[in-house]
Design a protein that fits this description.
alpha+beta, three-stranded antiparallel β-sheet, 3 strands
Protein backbone atom coordinates (compact mmCIF):
# COMPACT_ATOMS: atom_id res chain seq x y z
CA UNK A 1 0.00 0.00 0.00
CA UNK A 2 1.48 3.40 -0.95
CA UNK A 3 2.36 5.84 1.78
CA UNK A 4 1.10 9.40 1.68
CA UNK A 5 1.92 12.21 1.36
CA UNK A 6 4.48 11.70 -1.37
CA UNK A 7 6.04 13.79 -4.12
CA UNK A 8 6.07 12.47 -7.67
CA UNK A 9 6.39 14.27 -11.00
CA UNK A 10 6.67 17.65 -9.24
CA UNK A 11 3.32 17.13 -7.52
CA UNK A 12 2.40 16.61 -3.88
CA UNK A 13 0.13 13.57 -3.65
CA UNK A 14 -2.28 13.22 -0.73
CA UNK A 15 -4.25 10.04 -0.17
CA UNK A 16 -7.36 9.74 1.98
CA UNK A 17 -8.49 6.20 2.72
CA UNK A 18 -11.70 5.40 4.57
CA UNK A 19 -10.92 1.92 5.92
CA UNK A 20 -7.45 0.36 5.96
CA UNK A 21 -8.76 -3.11 6.90
CA UNK A 22 -10.65 -3.86 3.69
CA UNK A 23 -9.10 -4.44 0.29
CA UNK A 24 -11.83 -2.43 -1.42
CA UNK A 25 -11.24 0.62 0.74
CA UNK A 26 -12.90 3.68 -0.66
CA UNK A 27 -10.92 6.87 -0.71
CA UNK A 28 -9.48 9.50 -2.94
CA UNK A 29 -6.16 10.82 -4.09
CA UNK A 30 -5.49 14.52 -4.50
CA UNK A 31 -2.50 15.88 -6.40
CA UNK A 32 -1.26 19.45 -6.05
CA UNK A 33 1.49 20.83 -8.31
CA UNK A 34 4.47 21.94 -6.21
CA UNK A 35 4.55 25.21 -8.14
CA UNK A 36 1.04 26.00 -6.88
CA UNK A 37 2.06 25.15 -3.31
CA UNK A 38 5.01 27.54 -3.55
CA UNK A 39 2.70 30.28 -4.81
CA UNK A 40 0.21 29.62 -2.01
CA UNK A 41 2.94 29.69 0.63
CA UNK A 42 3.96 33.26 -0.23
CA UNK A 43 2.38 36.22 1.55
CA UNK A 44 -0.43 37.77 -0.48
CA UNK A 45 1.55 40.98 -0.93
CA UNK A 46 4.23 39.07 -2.85
CA UNK A 47 1.77 37.23 -5.08
CA UNK A 48 -0.37 40.16 -6.14
CA UNK A 49 0.91 43.74 -6.11
CA UNK A 50 -0.82 46.06 -3.66
CA UNK A 51 -2.82 48.99 -4.97
CA UNK A 52 -0.38 51.80 -5.85
Amino acid sequence: MPRFPQVRDDQLILGLVKDFDTLDASGMICTIPLEDLQTLSKPVSEVTPANP
